[in-house]
Protein 1
Amino acid sequence: MPPVIEVERLSRQFRVYRKHEGLVASLRSLFHREYTLVQAVREVSFRIEEGEMVGFLGPNGAGKTTTLKLLSGLIYPTSGTARVLGHIPWKRENSYRRQFSLVMGQKNQLWWDLPAQESFRLHQAIYRIPAREFERRLEELTDLLEVRRLVSQPVRELSLGERMRMELIASLLHHPRVLFLDEPTIGLDVVSQKQVQQFLKYYQQEQKITVVLTSHYMKDVEALCKRVIIIDEGEIRHDGSLGEVLDRFSRFKVLSLVFRNGVIPEGLVRYGELLQADLPYVKLKVDRERISEVLGRLLSQHEVDDITVHDRPLEDVFAEMFESHRKSKGGPGP
Amino acid sequence: MSGQADQATGLAVSDGITDPWRNDWRGAAQTAWVVFKTCLEERLVYRGDFFFSTFVRFLPIVTQIFLWYQVYQVGLDSQISSLNGYSYEDMVAYYLLAMVARAFSSMPGLAGGIALDIRDGGIKKYLLQPIDLLGYLFWHRLAHKLVYYFIAAVPFAVVFWLCGDFFPPFPPLEIWIAFWLSLLLSFLIGFLLEALLGLIGFWFLEVSSLLFVYMMLNYFLSGQMIPLDWLPGSVTMWVNWLPFKYLAFFPAAVYLQKIPSLNLWWELGVQALWVVLLLQANRLALRHGLKRYGAYGG
């Protein structure tokens, strides 16, 4: 079975106007403008199989959203090829557009002044969804996302979380086979984030649709995606499971310790970096290769009430990974 | 290759040959109807603003009639009752009919709205969905216009009733048909000209200066300011080659039977040709513009 998404050496450059600071520079720019070429995505290749849920991770400006825009046919690439469901996305054929959806957390696609219900009806007509199927799906989705009573309220009166849930419903009414999600939980509170995550997980497993998700929230990706593609400066740094990311890029583990009698023994720094010393709790960052040796020594030489070994937070691992890459290239930090 | 369906997955049907939507005119009409209906509903949300703006747009019409009255009064004092073949009554009738044509051909906010959508990324929703951007904008505008006519019908009727004596007798059926046809075509030309200006936003992002130039040209060359047959012959020759005259002057001239009957259907043909040319220009601008598009704004 061919992959649902197939990307081969895809690149996209943007020509960006460089404006220097100040009024004189603004006047000069009327006659002469400086442009620079920004390589948003460089020679990116990957494949995604049907039913996969893949997370795109990377810092701001890494090329995640540009990749999604290319895959949804919003922009043309500078070079390279891509096929989604057998279509070249930027041809924007209707037969392709009927089979995917793109949800952008920062962009409202519903009619602002009308109830979401009207936007849904419009979707029904645009995607030509048979009436019975439409009613069934709408009922199912509004129940799952707990917004049934809100569909007749103007969109502008909904909270951000409610609006995002409506956006998700609109994007799923035509039962797309591929769903692109660009920061779907951006700006949402913890409860709404969790609701959206749970819904996406359930829906993807039920319907076996292919989902590509970009997010800044590591929790989204951890909760939803088995596979992550880490992209930075337009290039893929890693394509695999989150566990592999830790194995590959995290050289450290974190030990949480509780010392008996609330006394912190001296000389702990010989085991690793002291992250926190908040009596009686202590956190130590220890080299992965030394973990069993350090555990053994701590338990034999000190009075320990409790000990736990954690992976480092993914955010820290990624930050370190991107930073070390920049340093190795001699470039500035983020 | 993109046009082939994959037997194993049943995935792609992209060349349209086996696309069940290809000849589904009923489905297309249904979509257009729902787009139209939704736009109507949206237009009716801000009732107060709509009533007020419709009322405010009538004020210049009334003041212009008084202005022409004063101009002709000066002429009467000098024993002149007509200017370039237009009596005061002809002038008021011409002006009101030109305003009717403008009610069809003016497209407030269309070009600026498209350019803004390009700049802030609002255009994405049209590109993602299986709809035609121009078709969508067309139905949206039609809804906008119909709501305007619905509200403007009363003040228009009052003004026409008050100025009823200034109009020539009811024209023959042929002229009546030609007049309505010219109004419909002026709606299409107005829509396509402004949509084209908006699509220039793919290249310039901000089109307000261009729009200002367009408005100025429109004011002078469409016959809003003065009837175009007042212009010197050498200027009229050039103006005749431009589409602006169809936006105000031409429908009014048809009604007032100032177009020789031999030329009438030929002129309507040229007007229709402008629609076809502008439609192609729009399609071309959209196709090339999208290649430049950077999908800014998130």
Protein 2
Amino acid sequence: MALINPKKKEVQVKIVYYGPGRGGKTTNLEYINKKFKSRIKSEMVTVKTYNDRTLFFDFLPFDIGVIKGHTIKVQFYTVPGQVKYNATRKLVLRGVDGIVFVADSMELRREMNIRSLQNLEENLGSMNKNLNKIPLVLQYNKRDLAKEGIPLLSIETMEEDLNKTLNAPSFPASAVVGDNVAETMKKIISLTVSSLKKKLDVGEEK
Amino acid sequence: MEFALDFTKKQLESIESILEDELIDIGVQCVVLIDLAGNVIVNLDNGESDHDVYSLAALAAANFGAVNAMANIIGEQEFSLLFHKGDKDSIHFSKVGDDLLLLTIFGKEVSLGFLRLKIAEAIKNIQATL
């Protein structure tokens, strides 16, 4: 959960980009880092293996200004998508306030998206959290590949597979090109921050 | 594990004053108290260090988690002390209660033995404020 510092009037919010391996989570953060450089005061931190896959996480701090008298510091994390790194995913999910699930639109990856979402639900469950109750945005990434003739899942199929019961806001996107990357980010920030507003009201009384 | 850590202004001020007296005053460069989700709770420095404490906190929390997982594999509950030694500067990590971590960054002029004593003292005092 978000950490509120009543002395500095500062709130730290943790948003995690989750999803199957090679789905574009890191690419989302890289695009945000490039596009919003002025709001990012430090370097993006990435812990990668030798072949450029995320080993631990990527970390990007992002200032979104002042809400209810508090400076809001959003901290974006990605998880390693590969199946074998589940222990690490659980660590990164600790204290999460909002989640972006980055699904891969390629037809080949249909099963992996479903499994990764199940894995997210299980991992949250082990922390007594419920995916239905946490701010969540779905992103259907790699839509640009349609132009190259790569078979993609239709948005309807992806909604049916992933979002039928969750009913979360969703965006078709291309993290490489930047389509809907900022929109996804803005949506998750606004959902997460509104879920914190009640807590900030209480915090103001301290 | 879920964190329900809320600090009042008074608590934060007490923690800052403990860290200032016990650690900054003996020549430590920078101290950061974080939670295991990687949030910065308190950070203080001697005015000469300019580290990116938010990134440091995220990495330190993850590092601590990874080391704990290793401890479990060899049958330990946890390694409560971690220390990384550099050429000029080093980092000492210490658990505070169940949910917090204290990072201390210090140079060669501070002896590790003395620092560990002071850190133990600071942790005892911090826990009394929680």
